Amino acid sequence: MRRKRRQSNLGFRLMSLEFRIRDGFRPPIRILQEMGVRSGMTVLDFGCGPGSFSMAASRLVGSEGLVYAFDNHPLALETVRRDMNKKGFKNILPLSGEDLVNVPNESIDMALLYDVVHDLSDLRPVLTDLQRVLKPNGALSIRDHHLKEGPLVSRITSGGFFRFTASTRGMSRFVKA
Asked: Among 86, 104, 115, 151, which one is most buried in terms of CB atoms within 10 A?
């Protein structure tokens, strides 16, 4: 993942606290249900942070599904590993840095990019990677409270990899073009 700058450990811990509070008001599992995550799917949580969406996706996809929890911050992956072990989740695979190359082509049903697009210095290589790993009918689910819908849609669709399909409750959905 190519971030503008790497977040400090303190910044990561504060963000994690903020996300726990946020998740109390709008639980990740409900958001993922609304976006269509279901049993047997393979989900990529791109920029997973402390993993609240990875954990929720794990529950929804069940034992027949798989969740890739991808982040470049060591504390993010440490938190995901700790929580998945504590909860007994066996269907989450934490990935760091450039490990996205290890995700098989056309293997992902849905990629989640939640509060991460604004922080990417160069979106094009990320969209290229996502285009490669998404199945032909795969989708991107994006939410970024730092960006308004118009500029977000423009950033995602400008390279011709994805087309915008819908927006609901601040969540935007895209499919492969």
From this structure: 115
